[in-house]
Design brief:
The structure is a homodimer of 137-residue chains. With 137 residues, chain A is mainly α. In chain A, 59% of the residues lie in helices and 8% in strands. Chain A is built from 6 helices and 3 strands. In chain A, strands 1-3-2 form a 3-stranded antiparallel β-sheet. Chain A starts with a strand and ends in a 10-residue tail after the last helix. The mean pLDDT of chain A is 92. At the A-B interface, helix 3, helix 5 and helix 6 of A face helix 3, helix 5 and helix 6 of B. The structure holds a DNA duplex (30 and 30 nucleotides).
Chain lengths: 137, 137
DNA sequence: GTACTATTTAAAGTGGACTTTAAGTCAAGA
DNA sequence: TCTTGACTTAAAGTCCACTTTAAATAGTAC
């Protein structure tokens, strides 16, 4: 079994050593053995980091990743853990997409079509709760 | 002209008084006159707040809103200010949408289809830079 | 006059995922 | 031996848009 220093793990995983220490501090990575006070990792830590990274790509927070690893009964299969967490996260991600699309609509359909000379004029367009959205700007 | 206390402005604008003080501190709202040390606002502040609010809906940061108000030559029309800022912001918002859609894809097409028993097994699927994405999970 | 509410300020707190800093320890190469 | 360079820790800093807190002052209602 390969033994790695924190620097080697960081390089192979493409992250900073400080991130690895942080994960340990928030119980997302288990504390490794030590040699003369230095952390010494089994190569399997790279698998754990790969799972952390894909979870982050999917939008999971560190707290949720901790739940993924430590928040289920030991016999709960990985597939079931992902399913529970991913269903919740999908709701959030959909909300993010909708919010961003709403911003895009305001930018394209209102702000980019503005014909006002002054921002005060814009304000009056906004504040008039007018009949036609098209005339706001 | 109507004169308003900070509390009245807050109520009418639907925000907290602390937000109004914050906007003043970051130069997004001009400092109002004072009576016995208390801020006293002209009703036109409500127009300014309306502009701030629509800018926020469009995803602008406070720094960008400050630019909108204070970062252009005085003769620059509102329409041109919006256009410059909105073009930039659209790029960012599109990036947000794409990132969120990528998350959604990982959630739906990878994590929700996981059949692994253990997370270690997941890791091996991820780490194999395999020929078929479909078999990752 | 008394109570209650609104206001004032500066400074600290919030959340999230780290990074940076400071000060010290340890190991390997010339 | 000396000098890098990597490692250790705890604590503070980062970004952002505010909110909260504390302690003091001012205005309003009775």
């Amino acid at each position: 079994m390969e033994e790695l220093t924190i620097g080697e793990v960081a390089k192979r995983a493409g992250i900073r050593a400080s991130a690895i220490r942080y994960y340990e501090s928030v119980d997302v990575l288990p504390a490794p053995s030590r040699i003369n006070g230095r952390r010494r990792y089994d190569a399997r830590v790279l698998e754990r980091l790969a799972v952390i990274q894909i979870a982050q790509q999917a939008g999971f927070t560190v707290a949720e990743i901790r739940t993924l690893f430590n928040g289920f009964a030991a016999e709960t299969p990985a597939s079931a853990r992902w399913e529970i967490l991913a269903q919740q996260k999908l709701v959030e991600v959909d909300a993010v997409i909708r919010r961003a699309q709403a911003m895009k609509r305001v930018l394209e359909e209102e702000l980019l079509h503005c014909r006002c000379l002054t921002l005060d004029e814009c304000a009056r367009c906004i504040l008039e709760e007018g009949e036609s959205d098209k005339l706001f700007f």
